[in-house]
Amino acid sequence: NAGVTQTPKFQVLKTGQSMTLQCAQDMNHEYMSWYRQDPGMGLRLIHYSVGAGITDQGEVPNGYNVSRSTTEDFPLRLLSAAPSQTSVYFCASSKLAGGGNEQYFGPGTRLTVT
Amino acid sequence: DAKTTQPTSMDCAEGRAANLPCNHSTISGNEYVYWYRQIHSQGPQYIIHGLKNNETNEMASLIITEDRKSSTLILPHATLRDTAVYYCIVRFSSGSARQLTFGSGTQLTVLP
Fold first, then answer.
1. Which of A43, A49, A96 to mutate to test the interface with B (most CBs of B within 10 A)?
2. What is the Cα–Cα distance from A26 to B60, expressed in whole angstroms?
3. Over the stretch B15-51, which tens digit does the pLDDT of each residue have?
4. For position B94, what pLDDT does the model report?
5. Over the stretch A30-72, which tens digit does the pLDDT of each residue have?
6. Looking at the predicted structure, is the pLDDT value of residue A99 above 70?
7. Which residue, A34, A114, B10, B84, shows the most beta carbons closer than 10 Å to its own?
């Protein structure tokens, strides 16, 4: 299994541009989520999904959209990039949403918005 | 989810056991204790979790006190590759379990 994969690894955007961060998992996990991590800080939840066709907002959803058309993929869209969105983005998945299920994280996408 | 308290940093000699403490005095009966680590800006890595009993896997052991108000992660033979930030997290066992709340964690430095 490849686990959780993310593309691209690095991205530089200009203010106002849009882009999609890709996330895929091959473990048939129902639960997927997106986090951002700012320097020296913990992870903050952006959006999550408990299954195909179901998404919900996390702690910091503004400026981001998600969709879950398949079990495997959970892309994160930046609608109009802002410098405040400069961060490292991690995608994670777990078999189910409950607390007894460990989450597996991707390697991250390092985004800089100028 | 219950709040956790961890030391900011710890050192450990290579080959020795690393014992990382965590206080979670407000934990409720249906909350798991999880440990993750993050090596140099990589994605967090799951280590181990437990509810009431002590747990062991190929990476580590988790010791939970009888009153469940604190726990210790034990890396039995620390190597230089174990240098990382270690996060102790508590999560409800059911419900939407929307997120893992990562606090500041403990920076473990394994010294040669």
1. A43
2. 26
3. 999 999 999 988 888 888 999 999 987 899 999 999 8
4. 53
5. 999 999 999 877 888 899 998 999 999 988 999 999 999 999 9
6. no
7. A34
**Who contacts A63 (Cβ-Cβ below 8 Å, separation ≥6)?**
A78, A79, A80, A82, A85
* pLDDT > 90 fraction of chain B, expressed in percent and rounded: 70
Burial (CB < 10 A; 0-12, 13-18, 19+), residue A51, is: middle
Tell which of B5, B8, B46, B53 to mutate to test the A interface (max A CBs under 10 Å): B46
> Which amino acid does the sequence have at B26?
T
| DSSP assignment string, A6-57 | EE-SEEEE-TT--EEEEEEESS--SEEEEEEE-TTS-EEEEEEEEETTEEEE
Question: What size, in residues, is chain B?
Answer: 112
Tell me which residue in B41, B43, B46 faces A102 most closely, judged by beta carbons. Answer: B46
Cα A49 → chain centroid: 10
A62 beta partners = none
- Residue from A54, A35, A9, A56 nearest A105 by CA: A35
Residue B96 has pLDDT above 60, yes or no: no
CB-side neighbour CA atoms (13 Å) of A12: 1
**Cα–chain center distance at A40:** 19
